[in-house]
Design goal:
By secondary structure, this protein is an alpha+beta fold. It contains 14 helices and eleven strands.
Length: 430
């Protein structure tokens, strides 16, 4: 039977991130009569939704060569996730959280860039797998929405002390070497896109009686096979995630279990580990001291109206109104109470269009208006600097890690509390 934790993760990915699904054309001929199987306050889950999600799970498990759980278990897990999704969407609407279309487009564009694709190429790739591009975007939009809800309702209420951060950093440094000496065996896929079980068993048995380097020379198809599979010293950040996850749980001298990847099966040996004497490379931040006036696009404010409004505000500033006074009076951002001041902002933390607007602005002058992911902005950049933020960056990374861990723990209780306050009715057997 499949591990329940793996099943739950798989269901979450399939329901919430359509881009990871298999070809859905197989479901075009699904003609059973649709009906409601669950009521979630103001929304419903239909039988077609449930069956479609279940069938996708089964196909995914079949391709991964995993045993499927009983249908009752599968129905419960999938229905729970669908109910959760409906509930989160309704809750986000109630508290005024939504994903702006410009922000969503920016995130999707960044996904394309990270995969070395243009937006059109990403669209073609997604749709070639049988998934309409708008459904892919809807999945991304839900992820962003869920993260916003978690940030606002849970993460914002979590306090992380400086002691926790320092203690975590010390523990990480003491137990986590920064460099590893690794040996590697690769068994490539052959006929049927699989690695021969007989060959794998032969290698595993040979490792019990012979040295790793000899087995690598005799069997490995990796790039360093002739050198006994020795990959030399590698930083953890330079290793594939599949390798780094395995290495982090190993002691010196340990041999990993077979690790399955797209090109075959990998077996690793941890030969040695050490902390780098060179220290961490400094992180230099390009920062801007920013004040902004933000006007958001909505049903009432279209782009033409916003441009005219921004032009009027800019004229008032030229005629003597200070930028701070204008921001307090006109800006639709929370920073308006601080005269539009965002303080020092790291360039790397800016969204692409916003970053372009900042880079186009002149120091000491009111610039814009610019269209950005968060709305139209007028900017006043008072100063610019390069700052060593290595220590701050490390502490921030640890703080975010701790917040994420605590958020994950608290989310289940928060969700159960939310469920207890709304009407949820299961109609599966009716």
């Amino acid at each position: 039977m499949i591990n329940k934790k793996i099943l739950t993760t798989l269901i979450f990915i399939i329901i919430n991130v359509p881009g990871t699904l298999f070809n859905l054309k197989a479901y075009e001929d699904y003609e059973s009569l649709d009906r409601v199987v669950a009521v979630v306050e103001k929304s419903v889950v239909t039988k077609n939704e449930l069956e479609k999600a279940i069938n996708v799970i089964l196909l995914k498990l079949r391709k991964a060569e995993r045993d499927a759980p009983s249908r009752d278990v599968l129905i419960k897990e999938v229905l729970d996730r669908l109910i959760e999704k409906k509930l989160i969407i309704q809750y986000a609407e109630m508290i005024g959280i939504k994903v702006e279309s410009q922000y969503l487009d920016s995130v999707v564009s960044n996904i394309a860039k990270k995969n070395n694709l243009t937006l059109d190429e990403l669209r073609v790739k997604i749709e070639s797998e049988g998934l309409p591009f708008n459904e892919f975007k809807e999945g991304i939009s839900y992820e962003l929405l869920l993260n916003q809800v978690k940030d606002r309702e849970i993460a914002a209420r979590i306090n992380i002390s400086d002691f926790e951060i320092e203690n975590t950093m010390k523990n990480k440094k003491s137990r986590a070497p920064s460099e590893f000496k690794i040996s590697h065996i690769l068994l490539k896929k052959e006929s049927g896109n699989k690695v021969g079980e007989e060959k794998l068993n032969k290698v595993l048995n040979q490792l019990k009686t012979d040295s790793f380097s000899n087995v690598a020379v005799n069997f490995s198809q990796g790039p360093m096979a002739s050198n006994g599979g020795n990959l030399g010293w590698k930083k953890i950040v330079d290793l594939p995630e599949l390798f780094s996850e395995a290495i982090n749980g190993m002691n010196i001298g340990d041999i990993s279990k077979p690790l399955i990847s797209g090109n075959g099966i990998h077996i690793l040996r941890l030969d040695d580990a050490k902390n780098s004497d060179k220290g961490q490379k400094k992180i230099i931040s390009e920062q801007y001291n920013i004040q902004q006036i933000l006007i958001k696009i909505n049903e009432i404010n279209n782009e033409d109206n916003i441009k005219k409004r921004m032009g009027n505000i800019k004229n008032q500033i030229v005629e003597g109104l200070t930028f701070s006074e204008a921001a307090a009076k006109f800006s639709e951002d929370i920073s308006s109470s601080e005269g539009g001041s965002l303080g020092w902002v790291d360039k790397s933390a800016m969204l692409p269009n916003y970053k372009s607007a900042v880079e186009s602005s002149e120091l000491g002058k009111v610039s814009g208006p610019f269209p950005t992911e968060v709305g139209w902005v007028l900017l006043f950049i008072s100063d610019k600097r390069n700052k060593d933020i290595t220590d701050e960056s490390n502490k921030l990374a640890v703080r975010l890690e701790l917040v994420q861990k605590k958020t994950k723990i608290k989310y289940k209780d928060w969700l159960n509390s939310l469920k207890s306050q709304v009407h949820i009715e299961i109609l599966l057997n009716e």
